[in-house]
Write a structure and sequence with these properties.
Blueprint lengths: L2 H11 L14 H15 L4 H8 L3 H13 L12 H14 L3 E5 L9 H15 L5 E4 L3 H6 L12 E4 L12 H11 L3 E3 L10 H10 L3 H6 L5 E4 L2 E2 L6 H4 L5 H9 L4 E3 L2 E3 L19 H5 L3 E5 L6 H10 L4 E5 H15 L1
Parallel strand pairs: 1-10, 2-3, 2-5, 3-4, 5-9, 9-10
Antiparallel strand pairs: 6-7, 7-8
Length: 342
C-alpha cells in the first residue's frame, strides 16, 4: 500500500471528533449513540462488537450507552429520534453485508428522494474526504445534487478522477463537470477523460487510450482510495443516459432483451449483478468494473422506485462498502431481496 493510500485510508476509517451534542434530535453523535444503543439492547451485541462496527473505541461505546440511559432514550425499547431508520439501516447492512448504510428520511413516501439522498451523501463525504486522498467519481442527477451539501475546504494532495468520458453538448449532467466541481470544492486536482462517453468503434477507443494520452488517467484509477457511484435504470426514460440522448430506444430495447436492469458508468448488468452481453460495452470510455471492485471504499448513492431492480443488481456487481439511499427505496430493496430468496 502506498504512503498516500495509508494516509487516506487511516483518515477514512478513523472516527472524527464529533461536535458537542446540545440536544438536537439528529446530530451525528446522537445518531451514533442511538445506533450503539440499538445494537447493544436490541441486537444484544457486545460492546467490543459494537465498537468494531462503529469504528470507535470500547470506552466510547460505554460512555454512549450510559448517556443514552441518562437521557431516557433507553427504556423497554429505543425511544430516540428516527430509531426506525436505525433499525432499517441495520437490516440493509446485514442483508447485503455492508460496512455502513445511511438512510435518508422522506416526509412523504411519494416525494422525489434525490434531495434527501444528496443531502445525506454530502454530509457523509464531508466527514470522510481528507488530505492525500484519491477519489474516483461517476455522474448523474443524484451526484450533481450532492455538490450543494458538501462542506468546502482546502485539502492537500487531494485528487478527483472522472471515471467516464464526457458529453460533447453543454449539459448539467456532464461527468466531467461534476468531477471538476467536486475537485474545486476541496481545492484539489481534477483529472478527466477528455473523450466522448461512447465512441464509434473499438479501434477509436484503443487509439484514444494508447495513442492520445488517456492511458495515464486510466492508470491513476487503479489506485483509488474511494469511489463514488450512482446507478441508472434501464426500464425508464427518466434515467440520465436515456434522458440526455446517450441511449436511444433501440439501445434500451436491446439491452432490456438481454436482461439489463441498470448501469454503472455505462456497464449494463442484470438483476444478478452480471454484465450483459452487448456491443455497447466495447464502445464505452470508462474505467472497468474490475478496477472499481478493488477500491477499498466503494460508495453507492441512489434511490427511487424505478431503480430498485438496478440497486439489487449493483449490490452484487460492485459490492459497495457504503450505501446511501432513502427509506422507501431501502424497504423496497429489502422486499425484493427477500422475494428473490423464495
Amino acid at each position: 500500500m502506498t504512503d498516500r493510500r495509508k494516509r487516506a485510508t487511516s483518515a477514512t476509517n478513523s472516527p472524527k471528533k464529533a461536535p458537542l451534542d446540545i440536544g438536537q434530535p439528529d446530530t451525528k453523535i446522537s445518531r451514533m449513540r442511538m445506533r450503539a444503543a440499538w445494537m447493544y439492547y436490541i441486537e444484544q451485541m457486545t460492546q467490543n462488537e459494537i465498537a468494531e462496527v462503529l469504528g470507535v473505541g470500547r470506552v466510547t461505546i460505554v460512555r454512549m450507552l450510559a448517556e443514552a440511559r441518562a437521557r431516557n432514550e433507553v427504556k423497554i425499547g429505543i425511544q430516540g429520534y428516527l430509531s426506525d431508520l436505525i433499525a432499517l439501516e441495520r437490516q440493509v447492512e446485514q442483508q447485503f453485508g455492508l460496512d455502513k448504510v445511511i438512510i435518508a428520511p422522506l416526509s412523504q413516501p411519494d416525494n422525489d428522494p434525490i434531495p434527501a439522498i444528496s443531502a445525506a451523501t454530502g454530509d457523509y463525504l464531508s466527514g470522510v474526504v481528507c488530505n492525500g486522498m484519491r477519489v474516483g467519481v461517476g455522474w448523474g442527477r443524484t451526484l450533481l445534487s450532492t455538490l450543494s451539501y458538501l462542506e468546502a475546504r482546502a485539502l492537500e494532495d487531494f485528487t478527483v478522477i472522472s471515471l467516464l468520458g464526457g458529453i460533447s453538448q453543454p449539459r448539467r449532467f456532464n461527468p466531467a463537470e461534476f468531477a471538476w466541481q467536486f475537485a474545486q470544492l476541496f481545492q484539489g486536482n481534477g483529472y478527466l477523460i477528455p473523450a466522448p462517453a461512447l465512441v464509434d468503434s473499438i479501434q477509436t477507443k484503443t487509439a484514444l487510450i494508447e495513442r492520445c494520452g488517456l492511458k495515464s488517467v486510466f492508470e491513476m484509477a487503479e489506485d483509488l482510495d474511494l469511489v463514488l457511484l450512482s446507478v441508472g435504470a434501464i426500464e425508464t426514460a427518466s434515467s440520465t443516459p436515456y434522458r440526455i440522448g446517450f441511449l436511444n430506444e433501440e439501445h434500451q430495447s436491446s439491452l432490456a432483451e438481454r436482461g439489463a436492469v441498470g448501469d454503472l458508468l455505462f456497464h449494463f448488468y442484470d438483476q444478478q449483478g452480471r454484465l450483459v452481453d452487448h456491443p455497447i460495452h466495447d464502445l464505452v470510455m470508462s474505467v472497468g468494473i474490475e478496477t472499481l471492485q478493488k477500491v477499498p471504499v466503494r460508495v453507492l448513492t441512489s434511490g427511487g422506485k424505478e431503480k430498485i431492480n438496478a440497486l439489487l443488481g449493483a449490490m452484487k456487481l460492485i459490492r459497495p462498502t457504503v450505501f446511501i439511499t432513502d427509506e422507501e427505496s431501502a424497504r423496497q430493496l429489502l422486499l425484493l431481496a427477500e422475494q428473490e430468496k423464495r
